[in-house]
Design a protein that fits this description.
- This protein has two helices and 17 strands.
- Strands 10, 11, 12, 13, 14, 15, 16 and 17 form an eight-stranded mixed β-sheet that branches. Strands 3, 4, 6, 8 and 9 form a five-stranded antiparallel β-sheet that branches. A four-stranded antiparallel β-sheet has the order 1-2-7-5, with no helix packed on it.
- It has two domains: 119 residues, Immunoglobulins (Immunoglobulin-like, Sandwich), CATH 2.60.40; 126 residues, Immunoglobulin-like (Sandwich).
- It is rod-shaped and about 90 Å long.
- 7% of the residues lie in helices and 60% in strands.
- It is mainly beta.
Protein backbone atom coordinates (compact mmCIF):
# COMPACT_ATOMS: atom_id res chain seq x y z
CA UNK A 1 0.00 0.00 0.00
CA UNK A 2 2.80 2.32 0.94
CA UNK A 3 4.49 1.50 -2.32
CA UNK A 4 1.48 2.51 -4.34
CA UNK A 5 1.15 5.74 -2.42
CA UNK A 6 4.83 6.54 -3.02
CA UNK A 7 4.52 5.99 -6.77
CA UNK A 8 1.45 8.26 -6.91
CA UNK A 9 3.27 11.04 -5.06
CA UNK A 10 6.29 10.77 -7.34
CA UNK A 11 4.18 11.02 -10.47
CA UNK A 12 2.45 14.18 -9.17
CA UNK A 13 5.83 15.95 -8.74
CA UNK A 14 6.95 15.56 -12.35
CA UNK A 15 6.69 18.93 -14.28
CA UNK A 16 4.80 18.78 -17.54
CA UNK A 17 6.66 20.05 -20.70
CA UNK A 18 5.22 23.25 -22.24
CA UNK A 19 3.22 22.78 -25.46
CA UNK A 20 4.99 23.31 -28.75
CA UNK A 21 4.39 26.72 -30.37
CA UNK A 22 1.90 26.85 -33.20
CA UNK A 23 3.60 26.62 -36.56
CA UNK A 24 2.50 28.69 -39.58
CA UNK A 25 3.24 27.99 -43.23
CA UNK A 26 5.99 30.16 -44.81
CA UNK A 27 4.59 32.42 -47.55
CA UNK A 28 6.18 32.11 -51.02
CA UNK A 29 5.09 35.71 -52.01
CA UNK A 30 8.02 38.13 -52.60
CA UNK A 31 7.33 41.67 -51.35
CA UNK A 32 7.22 44.30 -54.14
CA UNK A 33 10.47 46.11 -54.92
CA UNK A 34 10.84 49.80 -54.15
CA UNK A 35 9.71 52.09 -57.00
CA UNK A 36 12.48 53.32 -59.27
CA UNK A 37 13.32 57.00 -59.29
CA UNK A 38 12.38 58.91 -62.41
CA UNK A 39 15.05 60.69 -64.45
CA UNK A 40 15.35 64.46 -64.28
CA UNK A 41 16.40 67.19 -66.72
CA UNK A 42 16.97 70.92 -66.69
CA UNK A 43 17.79 73.50 -69.37
CA UNK A 44 19.89 76.64 -68.97
CA UNK A 45 20.74 79.34 -71.48
CA UNK A 46 24.42 79.51 -72.44
CA UNK A 47 25.12 82.16 -75.10
CA UNK A 48 24.06 83.84 -78.33
CA UNK A 49 25.91 83.86 -81.62
CA UNK A 50 24.98 85.35 -84.97
CA UNK A 51 26.37 85.96 -88.43
CA UNK A 52 23.64 88.31 -89.64
CA UNK A 53 20.92 90.24 -87.84
CA UNK A 54 18.32 87.96 -89.40
CA UNK A 55 19.56 84.68 -87.93
CA UNK A 56 20.65 84.00 -84.37
CA UNK A 57 22.06 80.85 -82.82
CA UNK A 58 20.87 80.25 -79.25
CA UNK A 59 23.08 77.83 -77.31
CA UNK A 60 21.69 75.98 -74.27
CA UNK A 61 23.03 73.34 -71.89
CA UNK A 62 20.86 70.34 -70.97
CA UNK A 63 21.57 68.73 -67.59
CA UNK A 64 20.26 65.14 -67.50
CA UNK A 65 20.18 62.76 -64.50
CA UNK A 66 19.52 59.02 -64.77
CA UNK A 67 19.16 57.46 -61.27
CA UNK A 68 17.97 54.09 -62.54
CA UNK A 69 19.92 50.85 -62.75
CA UNK A 70 19.82 50.74 -66.54
CA UNK A 71 21.24 53.03 -69.20
CA UNK A 72 19.05 55.45 -71.13
CA UNK A 73 19.42 57.14 -74.50
CA UNK A 74 18.72 60.86 -74.18
CA UNK A 75 17.33 62.83 -77.12
CA UNK A 76 15.31 65.95 -77.89
CA UNK A 77 11.84 65.53 -79.36
CA UNK A 78 9.15 68.16 -79.94
CA UNK A 79 10.04 71.80 -79.27
CA UNK A 80 8.53 75.26 -79.52
CA UNK A 81 9.74 78.82 -79.11
CA UNK A 82 7.94 81.92 -77.88
CA UNK A 83 9.18 85.48 -78.43
CA UNK A 84 7.90 87.92 -75.82
CA UNK A 85 5.16 85.46 -74.97
CA UNK A 86 4.03 84.89 -78.57
CA UNK A 87 4.61 81.40 -79.95
CA UNK A 88 6.62 81.17 -83.18
CA UNK A 89 6.20 77.50 -84.01
CA UNK A 90 8.26 76.00 -86.79
CA UNK A 91 10.63 78.95 -87.07
CA UNK A 92 14.09 77.52 -86.55
CA UNK A 93 16.24 74.40 -86.58
CA UNK A 94 16.95 72.57 -83.30
CA UNK A 95 19.98 70.31 -82.87
CA UNK A 96 21.19 68.37 -79.84
CA UNK A 97 24.26 66.22 -79.28
CA UNK A 98 22.42 63.40 -77.54
CA UNK A 99 23.84 60.09 -76.33
CA UNK A 100 23.61 57.21 -73.91
CA UNK A 101 23.51 58.08 -70.23
CA UNK A 102 24.89 55.29 -68.04
CA UNK A 103 22.95 53.87 -65.11
CA UNK A 104 23.10 56.05 -62.02
CA UNK A 105 24.92 58.89 -63.76
CA UNK A 106 24.43 62.45 -64.95
CA UNK A 107 25.50 64.25 -68.10
CA UNK A 108 25.53 67.60 -69.87
CA UNK A 109 24.47 67.93 -73.51
CA UNK A 110 24.83 71.00 -75.77
CA UNK A 111 21.61 72.06 -77.44
CA UNK A 112 21.45 74.70 -80.18
CA UNK A 113 18.62 76.52 -81.91
CA UNK A 114 19.14 78.40 -85.18
CA UNK A 115 16.22 80.78 -85.59
CA UNK A 116 15.29 84.15 -87.11
CA UNK A 117 14.99 86.57 -84.21
CA UNK A 118 15.85 89.86 -85.87
CA UNK A 119 13.56 92.81 -85.32
CA UNK A 120 12.51 92.90 -88.97
CA UNK A 121 11.27 89.32 -88.57
CA UNK A 122 9.20 90.36 -85.54
CA UNK A 123 7.90 93.90 -86.11
CA UNK A 124 5.82 93.67 -82.94
CA UNK A 125 8.88 93.44 -80.69
CA UNK A 126 8.52 96.25 -78.13
CA UNK A 127 11.34 98.07 -76.42
CA UNK A 128 15.10 97.66 -76.63
CA UNK A 129 15.14 94.01 -75.63
CA UNK A 130 13.31 90.83 -76.57
CA UNK A 131 13.01 87.46 -74.82
CA UNK A 132 12.93 84.09 -76.52
CA UNK A 133 11.75 81.12 -74.44
CA UNK A 134 12.57 77.64 -75.72
CA UNK A 135 10.59 74.60 -74.54
CA UNK A 136 11.86 71.12 -75.45
CA UNK A 137 10.58 67.60 -74.74
CA UNK A 138 13.55 65.50 -73.54
CA UNK A 139 13.08 61.73 -73.96
CA UNK A 140 14.84 59.10 -71.82
CA UNK A 141 14.59 55.80 -73.77
CA UNK A 142 15.50 52.69 -71.75
CA UNK A 143 16.58 49.30 -73.08
CA UNK A 144 13.51 47.77 -71.43
CA UNK A 145 11.38 49.74 -73.88
CA UNK A 146 10.13 52.34 -71.42
CA UNK A 147 10.30 55.98 -72.50
CA UNK A 148 9.96 58.93 -70.14
CA UNK A 149 9.41 62.43 -71.55
CA UNK A 150 10.32 65.50 -69.52
CA UNK A 151 9.51 69.03 -70.76
CA UNK A 152 12.21 71.61 -70.03
CA UNK A 153 12.42 75.31 -70.86
CA UNK A 154 14.79 78.27 -70.63
CA UNK A 155 14.66 81.91 -71.70
CA UNK A 156 17.26 84.00 -73.54
CA UNK A 157 17.18 87.80 -73.62
CA UNK A 158 18.50 89.57 -76.71
CA UNK A 159 18.49 93.10 -78.12
CA UNK A 160 16.75 93.07 -81.51
CA UNK A 161 19.01 94.26 -84.31
CA UNK A 162 17.72 96.31 -87.22
CA UNK A 163 19.74 97.18 -90.28
CA UNK A 164 20.61 100.88 -90.63
CA UNK A 165 18.89 102.62 -93.53
CA UNK A 166 20.96 104.52 -96.10
CA UNK A 167 19.37 107.41 -98.06
CA UNK A 168 20.61 109.97 -100.58
CA UNK A 169 19.67 113.51 -99.61
CA UNK A 170 21.46 115.46 -102.35
CA UNK A 171 23.82 115.25 -105.33
CA UNK A 172 26.02 118.30 -105.84
CA UNK A 173 28.58 119.37 -108.44
CA UNK A 174 31.82 120.13 -106.63
CA UNK A 175 34.13 120.98 -109.51
CA UNK A 176 33.86 120.87 -113.28
CA UNK A 177 36.81 120.34 -115.57
CA UNK A 178 37.20 119.74 -119.27
CA UNK A 179 36.52 116.00 -119.14
CA UNK A 180 36.07 115.39 -115.41
CA UNK A 181 33.40 116.40 -112.95
CA UNK A 182 33.56 115.92 -109.20
CA UNK A 183 30.33 115.03 -107.46
CA UNK A 184 29.41 115.00 -103.80
CA UNK A 185 26.82 112.42 -102.75
CA UNK A 186 25.21 113.41 -99.45
CA UNK A 187 23.98 110.41 -97.45
CA UNK A 188 21.79 110.14 -94.38
CA UNK A 189 22.06 106.97 -92.27
CA UNK A 190 19.22 106.17 -89.88
CA UNK A 191 19.96 103.89 -86.91
CA UNK A 192 16.73 102.43 -85.47
CA UNK A 193 18.57 100.38 -82.83
CA UNK A 194 18.82 101.04 -79.11
CA UNK A 195 22.61 101.01 -79.34
CA UNK A 196 25.11 102.98 -81.49
CA UNK A 197 26.45 101.48 -84.70
CA UNK A 198 29.62 102.18 -86.64
CA UNK A 199 29.66 102.03 -90.42
CA UNK A 200 32.92 101.50 -92.26
CA UNK A 201 34.26 100.14 -95.54
CA UNK A 202 31.65 101.74 -97.80
CA UNK A 203 31.73 100.21 -101.27
CA UNK A 204 29.64 102.14 -103.78
CA UNK A 205 28.70 102.39 -107.43
CA UNK A 206 26.76 105.22 -109.06
CA UNK A 207 24.77 104.62 -112.25
CA UNK A 208 22.74 106.74 -114.65
CA UNK A 209 20.63 105.26 -117.43
CA UNK A 210 22.34 101.91 -116.92
CA UNK A 211 25.82 103.41 -117.29
CA UNK A 212 28.37 103.34 -114.49
CA UNK A 213 29.36 106.86 -113.55
CA UNK A 214 31.83 106.14 -110.77
CA UNK A 215 32.73 103.70 -108.04
CA UNK A 216 35.01 103.56 -105.06
CA UNK A 217 35.59 102.63 -101.41
CA UNK A 218 35.45 104.74 -98.28
CA UNK A 219 37.13 103.23 -95.24
CA UNK A 220 36.79 105.82 -92.49
CA UNK A 221 34.35 105.11 -89.65
CA UNK A 222 31.02 106.85 -89.18
CA UNK A 223 29.26 106.44 -85.82
CA UNK A 224 25.49 106.75 -85.71
CA UNK A 225 23.95 107.27 -82.23
CA UNK A 226 21.13 104.99 -81.02
CA UNK A 227 17.70 105.75 -82.46
CA UNK A 228 19.15 108.68 -84.35
CA UNK A 229 20.67 109.68 -87.70
CA UNK A 230 24.00 110.88 -89.05
CA UNK A 231 24.98 112.46 -92.35
CA UNK A 232 28.10 112.00 -94.39
CA UNK A 233 29.39 112.80 -97.87
CA UNK A 234 30.96 110.59 -100.49
CA UNK A 235 32.99 112.20 -103.27
CA UNK A 236 33.20 110.81 -106.79
CA UNK A 237 35.19 111.70 -109.86
CA UNK A 238 33.30 111.22 -113.12
CA UNK A 239 35.01 111.08 -116.46
CA UNK A 240 32.79 112.21 -119.33
CA UNK A 241 35.00 111.00 -122.16
CA UNK A 242 32.58 108.19 -122.93
CA UNK A 243 29.40 109.87 -121.63
CA UNK A 244 26.52 111.06 -123.71
CA UNK A 245 25.97 114.72 -124.52
CA UNK A 246 22.56 114.63 -122.84
CA UNK A 247 24.13 113.97 -119.44
CA UNK A 248 26.52 116.87 -119.90
CA UNK A 249 23.60 119.12 -120.78
CA UNK A 250 21.64 117.97 -117.71
CA UNK A 251 24.51 118.75 -115.39
CA UNK A 252 25.21 122.06 -117.09
CA UNK A 253 21.54 123.02 -116.75
CA UNK A 254 21.39 121.83 -113.11
CA UNK A 255 18.38 119.66 -113.84
CA UNK A 256 17.11 116.64 -111.98
CA UNK A 257 18.92 113.42 -112.83
CA UNK A 258 17.90 109.83 -112.38
CA UNK A 259 20.41 107.79 -110.39
CA UNK A 260 21.03 104.32 -109.05
CA UNK A 261 23.38 104.07 -106.09
CA UNK A 262 24.40 100.57 -104.93
CA UNK A 263 26.97 99.11 -102.57
CA UNK A 264 27.58 97.62 -99.16
CA UNK A 265 28.97 98.67 -95.79
CA UNK A 266 30.34 96.95 -92.71
CA UNK A 267 28.32 97.63 -89.56
CA UNK A 268 29.80 97.18 -86.06
CA UNK A 269 27.39 96.92 -83.14
CA UNK A 270 29.51 96.47 -80.04
CA UNK A 271 27.31 93.50 -79.12
CA UNK A 272 29.29 90.42 -78.15
CA UNK A 273 27.15 87.89 -79.99
CA UNK A 274 26.91 90.05 -83.12
CA UNK A 275 30.12 92.11 -83.34
CA UNK A 276 29.58 93.14 -86.96
CA UNK A 277 27.65 92.36 -90.11
CA UNK A 278 27.38 93.63 -93.68
CA UNK A 279 24.47 95.55 -95.15
CA UNK A 280 23.77 96.08 -98.82
CA UNK A 281 21.85 98.96 -100.34
CA UNK A 282 20.39 99.64 -103.76
CA UNK A 283 18.94 103.15 -104.04
CA UNK A 284 17.35 104.73 -107.04
CA UNK A 285 15.38 107.88 -107.74
CA UNK A 286 15.59 111.45 -108.98
CA UNK A 287 17.74 114.12 -107.41
CA UNK A 288 18.22 117.76 -108.24
CA UNK A 289 21.83 118.58 -109.05
CA UNK A 290 22.86 121.57 -106.95
CA UNK A 291 25.99 123.69 -106.76
Amino acid sequence: MWCSFFLLLLSSCVTKAPPLPETRPVSSRVPPSAPQDDPAAGLTFDRLKAVTPGSLSLAFLLEADNPRAEAAHVRAAAWKIAVNGVERNGEGDLSMEGGTLAAGSSGTYPLRLETPLAAEMFPDLPGPEGEAELTVDIVFAYASGEEITIPVSAAAAFPPVREPEVRITAIAVQKAELINTRFKISLKIDNPNSFPVELSAFNYELYNAGRLWADGVREDILTVPPESSAETDIFLVMNFTNMSRDLLNQIAALRDIHYRFTGKATVSTGIEYLPQFTITYDLSGYSRVVD
